Amino acid sequence: MCWKELKERSHSWKFKKLQRRRGQTEGRVAIVKNVFLGRPLRSKGFDHRALTVTWTVLTHNLWVMARQTIAAREGARAAQKAAMEA
What we know:
Structural class: mainly alpha
Oligomer: single chain
Shape: flat
Low-confidence stretches: none
């Protein structure tokens, strides 16, 4: 893609939306790769690496769900506290 085409596309709402989504995805991949997967990847062979990545993604998803649950509980407690004070 040349810079002129990129400049024209940058005014499109669809292009902007997709680029924003791309940024979120790249950030998430970086977290999985650098925090959960470890360096270097010690699994040898494609099958073992695929299994390691599968378990890593599951671990990451459970971690995200736990964080969301904790945030929801804290929000509910804050709402209860505010209601009791009112």
